[in-house]
Design brief:
- By secondary structure, the protein is an alpha+beta fold.
- The chain has two domains: 1-376, Probable tRNA modification gtpase trme, domain 1 (Gyrase A, domain 2), CATH 3.30.1360.120; 378-452, Aminomethyltransferase beta-barrel domains (Elongation Factor Tu (Ef-tu), domain 3, Beta Barrel), CATH 2.40.30.
- It is built from ten helices and 19 strands.
- A hairpin with a 2-residue loop joins strand 6 (177-186) and strand 7 (189-194).
- Helix 2 packs across helix 8 (313-322) and helix 5 (235-242) packs antiparallel against helix 6 (245-251).
Length: 466
């Protein structure tokens, strides 16, 4: 085993301390709130770096971003110039190729691995993805639960502290999906992550809904907050070795859909660790205060040089498609309801009985049997396509050549060595094994409707009681 490296001494600028993950009476403070003062030096106790190292290695000379609480807080990105996450310099130092994505300049791949090699590395070992372009929110106050309960179909009153659920923000009248999101209940607030590409739309939607809600809800956007996804079969081992002793013990009993506060070994900085991810592998999403994002990311990479690599959007897209995960704006949009999008499982049992959420009249009717006047006209399904891969925009047709659906995402699967796609098909044709055709470059290609995920998920789930 390689000798452990010295860790940068990350000194936080918090207005208090974090609550312990398993302590009921920890101090209640704003997540990653900062003082209006310059950040203290990270004082890295590391070996000398090469001249190619990122200029971001001098955080002591940069002021901490002020993340002040606000009822209506949002980001205002320059539409003409992509923003950069706090790890841009680190990506550049590792030979990243950048592309515009969600208003940010994001790495699509790195010089050390092709997209396919990076994909396979994630399935076999572990990869680290920068997802700091995603928008992190906090909702607190006495009305926060009722507010989120109204705009989503989730059963939030039954969501336990330090647990998360996939959900959707819904349009009031149609039940269409404004955005998909993950909602986490913390002891004194809710933590949400939404898509970068929906930042402006989501901000307007949330602001409007908050006006309707009246007082009692505080909304804060955690601008410049770091967020990285550690994914792969070795993710738990790598993260455990990077944590202090107390956090390491807690990680052992952290299951998929749960989160905890943790301390990186040798530092006094805390991070929020959520078990889950977008690849279908076991893994974690780690929310990091802005001043410590690069130092902690570097330490994770350097703690497992033989097993952990940076991965970009290219591998993230093929991995998520194999896992049957949606990409908003492609597989889901404002005109799609959760029932059409094969997300009925996110609608809580009590919500099905009582409603009380945006679009409930539409969605609850869709959940009914056809004999009761319910159902939908189309459903999201998976396809395995012969010949050339079917990508977004390709038409799905029946034997008579009539259009019965469309492809929303598609790629060759590095794991299965087959062409896989996701899309929508006419209700009644959606059962697994149904043979159809997909028009690719003017030619019909045989396709078979297939259950998703295409590759079995490997989440670390809690044991089920028998």
């Amino acid at each position: 085993m390689a000798a452990r490296r010295a860790v940068p001494a990350v000194q936080p600028a918090f207005n208090g301390t974090f609550p312990s993950c398993f302590g009921a009476n920890g101090p209640r403070t704003a997540l990653f709130s900062t003082r209006s003062a310059a950040c203290p030096a990270l004082r890295p106790r590391e070996r000398a770096r090469t001249a190619t190292a990122s200029s971001a290695l001098a955080p002591s000379r940069r002021p901490c971003p002020a993340i002040a609480p606000s009822r209506h807080a949002s980001s205002t990105a320059d539409a003409g110039k992509p923003q950069r996450t706090g790890l841009y310099g680190l990506h550049a130092a590792h030979g990243a190729k950048f592309v515009p994505f969600g208003g940010y300049s994001m790495p699509v791949q790195y010089s050390d691995l092709s997209i396919v090699d990076s994909h396979n590395w994630t399935r076999e070992k572990a990869s680290l993805f920068d997802v700091g372009h995603m928008v992190q929110h906090e909702f607190s106050g006495p009305g926060a639960e009722a507010f989120l309960h109204r705009i989503t179909p989730s059963s939030l009153p039954s969501l336990q502290p330090y647990h998360s659920t996939l959900s959707t923000l819904l349009h009031p009248e149609t039940g269409g999906i404004v955005d998909d999101t993950v909602i986490t209940r913390l002891p004194d607030r809710f933590y949400l992550v939404t898509n970068a590409g929906c930042r402006g739309k989501d901000s307007a939607y949330l602001a409007s809904e908050l006006e309707r809600a009246g007082e009692g809800v505080e909304w804060k956007v955690l601008d410049n907050q770091g967020l990285v996804a550690l994914q792969g079969p070795l993710a738990s081992k790598i993260l455990s070795s990077a944590l202090d002793e107390n956090s390491r013990a807690a990680l052992e009993s952290l299951y998929f859909g749960q989160c905890m506060y943790a301390t990186i070994a040798g530092t006094d900085g805390n991070v929020l660790v959520s078990r889950g991810g977008y690849t279908g592998e076991d893994g974690f999403e780690i929310s990091i205060p802005p001043y410590a994002t690069e130092a902690i990311t570097r330490f994770l990479l350097e703690s497992a040089p033989d097993d952990l690599r940076l991965a970009g959007l290219g591998a993230r897209d093929t991995l998520r498609l194999e896992a049957g995960m949606c990409l908003y704006g492609h597989d889901l949009d404002d005109s799609t309801t959760p029932v059409e999008g094969a997300l009925s499982w996110i609608i809580g049992k009590d919500r099905r009985e009582k409603g009380g959420f945006h679009g409930d009249s539409v969605i609850l009717q869709q959940l009914k049997k056809k004999s009761e006047g319910g159902g939908v006209s189309r459903r999201r399904v998976g396809f395995v396509v012969e010949g050339a891969p079917a990508r977004e925009g390709a038409e799905v047709v029946n034997e008579a050549g009539e259009m019965i659906g469309n492809i929303t995402s598609g790629c060759p699967s590095p794991t299965l060595k087959k062409n896989i796609s996701m899309g929508y098909i006419k209700d009644g044709m959606h059962k697994s094994g149904t043979e159809v055709a997909v028009v690719v470059r003017g030619k019909r290609r045989k396709a078979t409707v297939t259950k998703m995920p295409f590759v079995p998920s490997k989440y670390f789930k809690a044991p089920t009681s028998k």
